[in-house]
Every structure is written in structure tokens, then in C-alpha cells.
Amino acid sequence: GVTDCYQPAEREFRLTRQCLEVAWECRQPVSIITKNALVLRDLDLLRNMASCGLVHVNVSITSLNAELARQMEPRASIPAARLRAVQTLSQAGIPTRVMVAPIVPGLTDHEAPQILQKAREAGATDARYVLLRLPQTVEPVFREWLERNRPAEVTRVEGRIQHARGGEFNQSGWHTRMRGQGEIADRIGNLFEI
Taking the model in full, what pTM does it have? Predict the structure, then answer.
């Protein structure tokens, strides 16, 4: 999939569960990325798949600030529930990575060290990041959200995004698309390398 496979509709439709059942039956490796603790519903299948090296789970944590997380990702699990999911998955022997994504320069980038520490304490064995990118129709939606929810921070956040994106809100180049460029992007990249 190209989106979070544990969105709220999954509670009812169980499409991800059915896909995992087929993947397990066929011994098809999968990688999951989600912002939702609902992933724990499928712990039995994930444990079986992990025992054969067929799965790893990526849990995305954008912020540890519950209010900000609720504003940015209103239908996703709260940060504490995501960290509990990381811990439960890790304790069950399922390879678990934390994705600090997206990192929003000027809004959430300062939280990355604490997220990494909490992720390690919860048992994550790896962490990666994606710098916020605002392609085409995403840009006006994000900017409207920022103006509505964080009006005092608009200038700083937009300026830092553009600084990390060569003066733009998005870069589509292969090497800069997910990481950005310049001092802010380098600082974030160095933090994750360390």
C-alpha cells in the first residue's frame, strides 16, 4: 500500500488483516508503516510472520506532544499509544522501527532526540525520518492547517521548510525529496546518523 494500512476504516473492513493472512499463507514478506496502535490487533499473525523473517513494522511518530499530534493527525493513535505499540511489537519479537515522519522544521524538529530516546526505550531497533514535503495539492492544505492551528508560528515554519527545500516548499529530486538540503536538513540528517 501507499498509505497507512491501519486507518480507522480498518477496524470495520479488516482488509489489512485479510492481506496479512494471505501473505502468511504464501510466505510473502511485508513491511508495514502505520501511525495507529490498531496494528496490535494483528499481533498473532505478525508474530508468526516474524518467526520466519517475513515482516517488520514501522511505527510513525511525528510528535510526542499529544495536543499537536491530535491537531496534525486527528484520526491516528496518540503518541503514547504508538510507543506502547512499539514496545508490544518489540517484546513479541517483531522487528520494529520508528519513523520520525514527517519532521516539520520549526515545529517538530526539536522533538527528534526525545522521540529517538523514547523509541529506543520502547525497544525499536532502528529509526528513520522524512523531512516534510509539500507537493502540489498538499501545500495549500498544510499551509491552511498551519495558519488555522499555529498562526504565531507560520512565518518560522514556512521559512524553515523553504530553507530546507532550496527556497521552495517541495523538491522532487531523488536525493533531496525525502531529506531536503542545506543547514537544517544536514542537522537533522546528522542527528539520525549519530
Answer: 0.95
